[in-house]
């Protein structure tokens, strides 16, 4: 037998899936995702994140940005480092769990994006309640999801890898229905 | 129904899972009336009721929710982990 | 017939449509009702019980009569209110509840025997013999009585659900609603304004009054234009708010595609909205009520305000000679508008003696209508005046018995309406409706100016409550004459006087109910079915309560009113369940090997939300059993590969991780050495088993727990609860890593050789012993190798990051096949574990204890754990409990179906003598006979006994031998090899 060679695969083929009503559904490439759990005292993690990655520790519902890196508040006592491999110093301030393969990430962007998401998710998506840069753990079409507003018309949606196809199906169906309203 | 998660803000009921009446666990290793109460007996108050709700598809926090069973008014919610303070 | 001028219809856009197969024409802007009226149709339906000819009664969603079937085939929609259905080109509608035709309906015979069909008739008549009810009476009655029927075919239309959020929800866009929206909109808060009509404006659209010096509809249009220019205001037309729920959540039905001739495929017919609002203004207006008199259900009798709507808004006259009857000023308004439109008015009758008019028409103050005639269309109207009987020739009668505030939504959270003598109707409760502020007609403010002002004031109050400044908002000038009414519910007389047109309930029915002591409104309602039709008695409830009060010697206030519950208008189930059809029913969880398994023709089986392969058929295999047997033999003899990624994997870290595991598991984990794996049993607090699985110690404060596929979510929730609520001071950090890892079982005597080849290293027991784990790498990819077995064979589970799952699975299977093995599915996995007596949720079904499972020794006495006290109850440790055993058939090949019951030989096979039951069963290709697991009273003490298994459902009886719950390698030598 030849040597075993491993081929990496995204949960979904990367790229634009659909564009309707100027709004596109796009599967984003996999990025390094590391769950950071600091335990009872988050202070050392805040310091380490800033020192090692130039990132602040995000408040609940917020995202912190740095060049090539961001950090999402990801639930109670949990943060998600997106982009770089965690710097060695982080491990002393928090437990680190690789989650790069656990999530599928889809971008929904365009003038209909908010209306599409409002078909699937009970979150208050008004700009004053969920501004660009906000992030939420929520429910989307019966799935536990992470929704981050990337801009006035842009949302990044993450669900567990196994449900990636369901996410695409739901987003596509909702976009088609919303777009159809514009045709009558 | 909507519940306010101290971390996430006001959210739709479908993000939460009911986790029962907020009772103190007896902790003793031997079976007794205290355990019987804890596991089997529930008050059915007409008025304020204290219960646990998990923000299960949200931030995973367990909340201590105070609710009026007559009006369904949510009187308060706090992180259970902080002792519900 | 259509008036030559006026109305808000677009005469340049004629629309052709068909009703009962006949072609007609209407205009854009018509409803089906106004178009039918314009074409001179009087009878549009047959009544529910007596099959009496019925005409259009209202101009809104309260319509009790004009219900039609819209469309044909699978798209046929019954009980569509013609008064709400917008006309479109090509619309096809049919009348319902008639056979063979609207003009000649054989069931009209019901009307002739009506004396026998009154309230309680069914309860009294069809009592005996009992067996006849279901088979004979009910089907016959159902065919005779009823409304439209569903097509019986699958719904081909798309439906949608959606969520919306705002600060202020304004329910209804009449004068009060528009003013409320303007007030709040200009304050800058987020406003949603819903109205069930296609055009906002409410009563203003049918009004000939002036508002702010312009025609009322023009003022409405201008107000809408102002609102549309505000980015913080969202106007939702064709949207009825149907219910109020806790926490400021409102249900609303938006009719998205029902007014269109051609719908793009994905366009939903309806969208059901959940609107969350901090405050809401209920500006739903008011509903006019009729007066009951003899034969008041004849086609041509309609609500006074509806007639105004048809004349003013749709430019249709429902008759050539109209009589107007009322007990309040609304009747005068109608008469005035009719005259202005050039329609002949045969007479204006006002029940109030003191009433006056300056209109040039025959006027009858202090008179009442006592009866009308005209079976297929009104012919005469009889009056009772102080001078005696007067008979008018008339083909239409407008009736106004006064106005009832549309307070339905205020009752949804238990607000109890209060009687108001001034308007002779109920007003919304002053409190008990969190966040919902009634305004306009819904609050009893009927004159236009009052409605405008109260809408403004309601929004101002909402703004103040929300902490916003209230900008000045001018209330336009409008008609402000006060409303005056003299209660009149029913004109006494002979014959039948209708209260509930939709359900054919008469004054006599209500009196019958009262005389039989159904005095409570709720009892009367259920006995007579008043208010239980699709219209929910919108135009009849109050009158029925008044008649009941009269019959029981109480006034209306004492009699009370039935409780209004959601939905305010009928909501199709398809809309409420939108998104739940087909793939939308539940998320599909797919493993990384899913595509590869499908390519291998594996049929999928659902395990929770997961899809897992049942078996992998090979050429020549005709049944699942052949494939399953082969796969079992593969694992027993060479090597098999199975995707086990669906098992829950929970990463547990923190200073107190070990103590935490000791607490949540019955057995001990703090003593587990790094590099080792241990089987764990998790109990519920009541001492019963919740789940089982293996947990590996990855580091000093680092464990990896495995749960069953079925209980992964439940266990995670349980652990979070234990960590946050029961042990809040411990440092425990939990995270699910189920989706991070693709994990494959490599099982069978050749598994070690296969993995040594893949990993390029020795895996002898000295390197990796049974119940051990080690980190491994393939290329530069790091993974974990666990030596655990769910088959009883030498076996491993190899975990790699999920992105490599498909690639790894494909190559493992290929290598296994080269060794005479291959992939195995759920069926084989199940057989393998039953042969070994390993447990799944068939055995851990929530009513079994560690003791029942023979695992009581796992319950540590050295530490406290969840379920410890509960499990120590004597009743859960009784020797004669149903306890786990193995079962094998005695004699020739026989079936042992799961779910069958066990009985002692000689005992009758009835519940009382049951000794236990079968939980898992499989044909063992290894042993050549069926093997089963089950629970038997005092089971472990009865090894070797014979027991009779009876499957009542399948009619199978098998004699079994009780044996140890392990059929293969009882010493466990194989996995330790």
UniProtKB/TrEMBL annotation, chain A:
Identify the InterPro entries for this entry: GCVT_N, TrmE/GcvT-like
Residues folding into a coiled coil are none
Species this chain originates from: Pseudooceanicola marinus
Q: Would you say which domain of life the source belongs to?
A: Bacteria
Q: Which SUPFAM superfamilies match?
A: Folate-binding domain
List each copy of the GCVT N-terminal domain by range. 93-176
Span-the-membrane segments of this chain are none
Name used for this protein in its record: Sarcosine oxidase, gamma subunit family
From TrEMBL, chain B:
- Its transmembrane ranges are none
Quote one Gene Ontology molecular function term.
sarcosine oxidase activity
One of its Pfam families is SoxD
Sorted alphabetically, the Gene Ontology BP terms of this entry are:
tetrahydrofolate metabolic process
| Protein name, per record | Sarcosine oxidase, delta subunit family
Origin species: Pseudooceanicola marinus
UniProtKB/TrEMBL annotation, chain C:
A GO molecular function held by the record: aminomethyltransferase activity
Q: Keyword Methyltransferase, does the record have it?
A: yes
**Residue stretches making up the Aminomethyltransferase C-terminal domain:** 883-969
Report domain FAD/NAD(P)-binding positions: 167-344
All copies of domain SoxA A3, residue ranges: 494-579
Coiled-coil stretches: none
**Name of the top EC class for this enzyme:** transferase
Show the NCBIfam families listed in the entry.
soxA (TIGR01372)
Give the family this protein belongs to, as stated in its UniProt record.
Belongs to the GcvT family.
Q: Can you name this protein?
A: Aminomethyltransferase
